[in-house]
Amino acid sequence: MSRHRRNARGRGARRAAFVVGVVALVLSLVSAAWAVFTDTATVTAGPTASAAFTSGTLNPPGTPTAAQTSATSPLTVTWTAASVTGGGGGVAPSGYEVFRYSAAVDGTATSVCTTTTALSCTTTAPATGSGFYGVRAKLGSTWIRDSGRLTWMDALGPTVTFTRPTAGLSLAAGLLARAVTTDCGAGFLACGTASDSSTLASAQYRFVRNSNQCWNGSAWVGIGTVACANNAYQAGTLTVGNPATTSTWRVPGTASTAYTLLTGYVLSVRVTDVAGRVTESSISFSTVL
Amino acid sequence: MSRGGAHRAPPEHRRGRLTRAAVAAVAAVVLLLGAQGTLSFWNDRATVTGGQFTSGTLNLTVDNQEGNPTPYAKTSLTLTGMLPGESVAAVVQVRNTGTVPFTWTATATTSNTGTADLGPFLTVQMYLGSAATNTTSYPRTGTCTTTTAPVGSGSTSTRLNAGTVGQTGQALCVRVALPSGVLNEAQGKTTGAVTLRLDATQALP
Questions:
Q1: Prediction pTM value
Q2: Digit-coded pLDDT (tens) for A63-100
Q3: Does B71 contact A43 at a Cβ distance shorter than 8 Å?
């Protein structure tokens, strides 16, 4: 049996070798039949192959400046135009976008305004009293270039108004006391508003009667006391409004206690914003019979 | 089992064998000699001359330039200071100046030599049988006027016969563009190359 198997195996091997030989012969004949002529030409673009195509550049706009016309006005950001190199010349950016950043480098960016060709735009000043502004030039839908960043600080103090009493008022003491209580609320003897582009930080007052007495929050005190020290301001109340840049200041005290004499008064109010900018404002008024 | 002559053939037998061998040898010699005489014959030779054999030629040219081994520089296919959305187009004329028909493929490649290279941002389009137009003011735009027969890079095989048709050739419009949505990083690239390779292969009957 084993001899038969060996013989059968030998025959199979010979048969396989024969088939392989035939296939190899056929393949060699076929490849010989497909030999063809070929040619190649190479074309390089441009007179200088390595620099046939180069790209232009969108150059950055100038670092912006920012200004406010009043304490409560918006911020006007201004910059110089970005230039474009390439495109055959005479190409202008397709637009600008102004961002306020949370830091001088990197930080979070907030878009505050966009323009097409104008080189300034108006935006709200930051309530924080300071900010970092940058301008981004755009070309097409994808190319951008950022300017340097401006560090902006609120340069203007708040605007202060007097609700009651008002400047030059001359009123009977009793009537004044009732008017103040009506307009400012019980527990206050003067009030007004303060506003700024930045959030307001504090309100103080200096309230002087007859040139020789000062209000300490609950009573009139004489020269030589702390309340009457030179340029001494007392802490008032500041009720932060909504938005936070508008607030109400008040002078604490009982109106019927404060307004009893026929005399003249000078009320000075000092309001400070978060940028540290201070506004002092004074009015004079009097009580009569 | 003695070594004597108990098994040897009788003398008359031995003689007969020797005789037969001698006769056979003589007969062989006679036959050989006779055969030699028979193989002698007359002969003649005739040589035919004439009928030369030469090979055909396969030759592809571009704008009547060989482009091989020295590449052919298509000087009009260039655009510097490219901005997004700009492009340039040029036509090369592919001709068959040989004697056999061929099919050809075009393969376009862009350079990629480093961070200063614009090549990776470029796109190349090719169209068969098209003219080209270009504008010179921003955005500079190159256009292949006919786009019905796009030629895929290295994929489409186009036949070009020899003779008059081959001499007239086939126009191939090549358009190189910086896409309008190209990345911001494509700014300020100072190098950039495009190479077009045309491969012709003999067309079998």
A1: 0.74
A2: 999 999 999 899 999 999 999 999 999 999 999 999 99
A3: yes
